[in-house]
Amino acid sequence: MLASPQANTPADAATKRTVLSELVRLRDAGAITPAAYAEHRATYLDARRLLGKLSGSRRIGMRAPLVHLDRIARDGLLTSGRVPALMLTVKRNREAWCCDPLPRNGQRRTFGRSQLVWQHYLGQGWQIQWLATFGKANALWSFKKKDDELRALLDEAITLAAPRAGGIAWEYLFAFGGGRPPWASGMAQATGIQSLSRAAIRLKDPVYFEAARSALGIFKTAPPSGVRVDVAPGRSHYLLYSYARGQRVLNGFNQAVNGLHDFATLANDEQGRELYARGVKQLAAELPRYDTGGWSRYQLGGAASDIGYHKLARDFLRGLCERTRADRTRAGAAQNGGAAPEPAGGATPTQPPPDTSAEPAPVVEVDPQPFCDMATRFTSDLRRGPRLEVLTSRTRAGARGAVRIRVDKPATVTVTVSRDGKTVGARTATVQPGTPVFVYTAKAQAGRYRVTVRATDLLGFRGATSAVLTVARP
């Protein structure tokens, strides 16, 4: 009998893929061992059994990682390289939702003796937070007496990296911001490369340099596999999220550049230098567009940063300022035959200076001034009130009046319109930097009015200004 035309189509094949069938396929292909197959099968079935007994928040938290795992298997993305992190995620969620107290959204924790940092995402269960994990690695490195914990953390992280973009990547395995798992973060990946490079020197183990070098893949590859977007000859932007090609986030890009710099310096790696050079040149070109004149923008074309992201952007820029200054000094010393200084770095736990036990290698020389100046600007923004300007000086009577103002940072603004000491209109709103419009309620009559603007920024600093508004006859 002839098969029907619809038989064995890709769609049919996809509907037949399950987690268990894909584990069998990997075992039969020799991609995973029989022992690993038996362990992963038991983990999956045990989590499924628990799911049937749960309700409410616990069921939602346990269900999410299983749903993502099922979809990844159905889409044919369950590779041997992804299995360890996926199954560990299922296992940790099974442990947590079985017996532990209910977590709050955003809560972080570790499990047992593992150094990995996990975070609870509402509706997504417990997930490995790779940025926090590698930030912890940098913190362990900075203590200088935590080598055993540093080695344990990075060794476990390496086993959980998945093949991606011609190298390895520490993938996020949950839905976030419109992205479906598995996806990669340029910021987290660069922080991982940074911590591995430092550990290679501290622990005198080249295996960490090898892992860091393999992790460069996403910085050489376009999204959605990688995070590199070529903007101009010799210049690239590195994305925060591999699935968000159009989103250009300052802190994520800056930290990617910092991490690539430290790898290129400590590993004396030519490919690392080339990737760093492409990124730092593009960051210098983009940087003015992240400045509102009084505050930072979280992303190009988007809203202003909140306080935390503004400070983070300032700190990462400080780190790049110090790095590029040190590169320039080293280049001058090399030309003069003098000794090169130690490489520089930031002072926060996620940005400790590179290890001084290694001789710094030459890195691309870049003008440090744009990064230093912007870091100084962002610091001063934290210490003053909003700058305000009334842009409307004349309007006509007979309709509700409108007053345009300019504010240089996010603030809560109150605009009051008065005549002869009597208020004829007032509005209060929380606004973004730019030129918002405030409409006052009274139908304006011809005459001269006083417009008073008061604003309070995110830190409580205040600003005020006033101007005369002339209302002409209709």
TrEMBL record:
At the top level, the lineage of the source is: Bacteria
Q: Where's the Ig-like domain?
A: 410-456
Which segments show compositional bias classed as Low complexity?
331-349
Looking at the record, the residues that make up the D-glucuronyl C5-epimerase C-terminal domain are 169-325
Q: Which InterPro entries match?
A: C5-epim_C (IPR010598), C5-epimerase (IPR039721), Ig_halo (IPR058929)
- Region labeled Disordered — which residues? 328-364
Q: One Pfam family this chain carries?
A: C5-epim_C
Q: What name does this protein carry?
A: D-glucuronyl C5-epimerase family protein
Taxonomy, top ranks, is:
Bacteria, Bacillati, Actinomycetota, Thermoleophilia, Solirubrobacterales
